[in-house]
Amino acid sequence: MSPGTVAAPRPAHPGWLLQLGLRAAVSALPALLALAGVLAIGQLAQRVLWPALFLSDPALRLEETLLLAGTGLLLVASLGRAVVLAIAVRAGAARLRTSASPGVAAATAGLRGIAWAAAAVVVDTALSVWFWGVLVSSAVALALGGPVVSALGAVGVAAVLSLGALLGPAAALWLELGLVVSVVRPVRVRAAAAEALGILLARPGFLLLAWVVTAIPAGLLAGGFQVLAAGAPGPGVAAAGAKFVAVLLVALVEAGATLARLDALAALVLDREGALPPPPPVPPAPVPRATLLGPEVVEARPVGPIAPWNPGAPG
Question: Model confidence over 128-148: pLDDT tens digits?
């Protein structure tokens, strides 16, 4: 390095990014409650309307009504989730930002959240069609083909299983990161997608760590709440109330984990801009001290006057 060049700042520590994300998620209580409410509406729609659709009396002829009502309610809940999540992440990044950049307006963030929600549906559908199409065709070739075709089918099954286990989480992380970049920085969706891909390839370890420390504990807590709700005695008001409370708690846990993860990704994007607050300074190590006296007690006692020394005097 030449004397005139300046060293690039080191990326922030993953622990500091996660701490900032958790702090931003907890401080935004209205956004957290709004996201939890939208998630609870979606879960209630799935738990109530679909069983009623498939288990209702055919003589009532409510199939089309329930289908339209359930589809509409799920669509509204999905759009509400996209808007609330985008605005909440935008607000969290604004609280973390140290520069004077204006950022993205709340209305623009909401529209970009809807755009990325639609992109998530398209990507998920494409991956599902690719995965099941290649898997079924490879399995048929493996079972019914000749020796060469069976070998190719076995290779295809192994390839689609291994790539599917990698591409699914990678696509989910890329979509979340693209949403974060779109609402944190004033860039278009296409540029945000390219930047999100670059960040994903540059720091895949942090993205995976952020998902592990948020999604896995949230899943365990949600599973525990559902188990407790399933243990409610018999059908009745108590069981219905327990299931309703479980839905609210699961939605609240999922909302908190999602906001903490996305706010941590927003901190990562701000760190690349140099607009992230630095971590607190590490306190200096204590100065070692030598022990001059042992554990025994030292006692001072008064003494009388000392006589002058006379070397010739008798002892």
Answer: 888 888 888 888 877 777 777
DSSP class of 99: S
Q: What is this structure's pTM? A: 0.77
Report CA torsion sign: 67, 72, 28, 120.
positive
301-305 CB contacts, 8 Å cutoff, 24+ apart: none
Give domain limits for the chain: 14-273
Contacts of residue 178, defined as CB under 8 A and 6 or more positions apart, other chains included, come to 116, 119, 189, 192, 193, 196
150 and 179 in contact (C-beta within 8 Å)?
Answer: no
**Angle between the N-to-C axes of helices 147-184 and 106-144, in degrees from 0 to 180, rounded to the nearest 10:** 170
Per-residue pLDDT at 312: 58
Q: How far is CA 55 from CA 128, 145, 241, in A?
A: 28, 42, 22
Residue 314 tokens read as: 């008798």
